[in-house]
Every structure is written in C-alpha cells, then in structure tokens.
Amino acid sequence: MDVDSPDRADRANQRTNRKPRDDSATEDGRRYRNRDDETGRRSHRSRSRDRGRRQRSRTPESKHRRSRSRDRERRRDKDSEIDRRRDRDRDRDRDRDRDRESRRQRSRERGSARRDLDEDDRRGRLGRRRSPAERSRSRSKHRGDTDQPGSSNGRSLIKRSGPLPSQNDSFAMSKGEAPEKPVEKPNFGNSGVLAAASNSVVQADGTTITLKYHEPAEARLPRDSWKLFVFKDQDIVDTIELSTRTCWLVGRELAVVDIAAQHPSISKQHAVIQFRYTEKRNEYGDKIGRVKPYLIDLESANGTMLNHAKVPESRYLELRNKDMIQFGSSTREYVLVQAPKD
C-alpha cells in the first residue's frame, strides 16, 4: 500500500472543498482600478493645463493686457466720480438759483404790497381832510393799539423831535378859523450885504464893480523875490515884481485888475496870483511855514493854462519856479521866476 496515499487524498479533499472564485467581485475591483487610473490621468492633465496657463499668463503681453485693463477700470472709476461731482454741483447750483429767485419774488411782493399801502394812504389823505384834533386822536389810538410795550408786534413808542401843536390852533382849525401866524423872529446871521459893499469898487461915473475875489486869511507878503516875465513870441515885453504885493488880479477890467490883459478871450476878472502862508511838518514832527505863490482861476470863460494844462476853476494850485501861465486864447506867456538868494 502506498504511504503517500493519505496525504494525496487530503490534498484532493482540500481542492474539492475550496470555494469557487467570485467572478463578479473581480470584475468590480478591476473596474474600480480603471476608474481610479482614469481620474488620476484627468487630474494630471488638468494640473498640466493649469501649469501651462500660468506659464502663458506670465508673458509680458499678458502683463501689459492686465495693466491696460486696470488702467481702463481706474479711468472708468474716475470718470464716474467726476460725473457724480458734476451732478452734485449742478443740483447745488439749481437749488441756489431757486432760493435766490424765491427771495426776489418775496421782495417784489413786499415792495408791491408797500406801494399799494402807500397808494391807499395817499388816496385816503386826498379824499378826506381831517382836522388836527382828529388826526392826533387817530394817531394816539393807533399807538395805543399797536405800539404798547406788551403788544404782539413788539414795537417801541414813536418819539417825536419837535413840540406838539398848540391846542388853540387845533380848536381854531376844527371850527373853521385860520390859526394865527407866528411872529417872525429876528435873524442876526450874515446877510452878505456888508461883504458885497466892502468888496466893491465905485467908479467916477457912479457905477459899482463887484470884485469876484477877496484875499484869504493866510495871505502874506513873500520873503523871497519873485518876478513874472511876460513873453510875446520870443521877446520879453514886460517884467513884474511880484514880491511887493500879496495878491495880483489878472483881467481886462482896468479899474480893478493889477495885471492888465487886453486880449478879447480873457475875462474882465480872469485869474489871481496869491501869496499864501502854509505850514507843513517834517519827519521830526516840527512845523515849517513858508509863503508860496498860488494860482486860482475865477471861473473864466476860456480858462487858464499852467504848463499847457488847464487849471480847474476856483481851486488853488501851487506855483513853482519857471512855471509858464497862459490866460484864455492869448499867445502871451507869463513865466514865474524866483530870484536866487544872496
């Protein structure tokens, strides 16, 4: 009998007792493995695509495109902000114009209402004449109604500067009688008659010439030597020593003038050369007084020229050394010269 037969029999029994392989489970595992492999390949391809995109996005052209897009966005935001500000400014201006127009309308309405009240008041005064007593009673009643300290409008009492009319006049007007006229009080003011009489010259034939100019209080004799040279064309026709008098009247009225000028364009009392004492303060505050010549035009018909410039009427203009004066349309030139001091 063979010894190895029991072992061989046992192995045969084990083969017979082994469970058959499940083909369905094997197929599912293979499917799962294939699916995992496919998923891994897909993820690998997606990673490679992402890597390629990143590599492509890092090129200079893509950076330039991104920068341009950002610039466009910034410009768009700035434009929108500017539009919003413009809209706000427009709304603010519209509101301001509306408020200004409303104020103007209110002021016009108040002005028209005030004019209507004034017109009604004027018509009432013209339509009905009241006596002073009635007017005073109505004013007192109106003040009692509206001008009391505890009234609603809060206005103060009306203060009058002048005295009230007398009761006798009020009663006389209410009765239809004319009030007595007040006695005229004496007036001790200056009438100007004495001044005109003292500033006039009586001629031999009895006619009176009124002077248009009288010297001011500051008239003084000059300490310096001043001369007036009269030129006609290029020749000296006359020389006048001005230091001997305080005032020199120029004109055609021979009875009153000091310097006669017979040109028809010169007025009878044309202009005056006046020496006046004036004071000025220096930089230390000390007063320094001097006597200087001045020229004044007496509202002449054709005017006075000083250094080829017209002199204003009735105003003193200071004269200086070598000033040239012309009267009216005369061609004569009057040159003022100050003599040098010794």
Q: Could you give a short description of this structure?
A:
Among the domains are: 68-117; 214-338, Sandwich (Tumour Suppressor Smad4), CATH 2.60.200.20. The protein contains six helices and 13 strands. It has helices spanning 5-17, 23-57, 60-127, 132-146, 167-174, 193-198; strands at residues 200-202, 208-210, 226-232, 235-241, 247-251, 259-260, 271-281, 287-297, 304-306, 309-310, 317-318, 323-327, 333-338.
Task: Give structural notes.
- The protein is α+β, with helices and mostly antiparallel strands and 342 residues long.
- Among the domains are: 50 residues; 125 residues, Sandwich (Tumour Suppressor Smad4), CATH 2.60.200.
- Strands 4-3-13-12-9-10 form a six-stranded antiparallel beta sheet, with no helix packed on it. A five-stranded mixed beta sheet has the order 6-5-7-8-11, with no helix packed on it. The chain has a two-stranded antiparallel sheet with strand order 1-2.
- The longest helix is centred in the first third of the chain and has 68 residues.
SSE layout and pairing:
Layout: H1 5-17, H2 23-57, H3 60-127, H4 132-146, H5 167-174, H6 193-198, E1 200-202, E2 208-210, E3 226-232, E4 235-241, E5 247-251, E6 259-260, E7 271-281, E8 287-297, E9 304-306, E10 309-310, E11 317-318, E12 323-327, E13 333-338
Parallel strand pairs: 5-6
Antiparallel strand pairs: 1-2, 3-4, 3-13, 5-7, 7-8, 8-11, 9-10, 9-12, 12-13
Region (Disordered): 1-191
Biased composition (Basic residues): 42-69
Domain FHA: 248-311
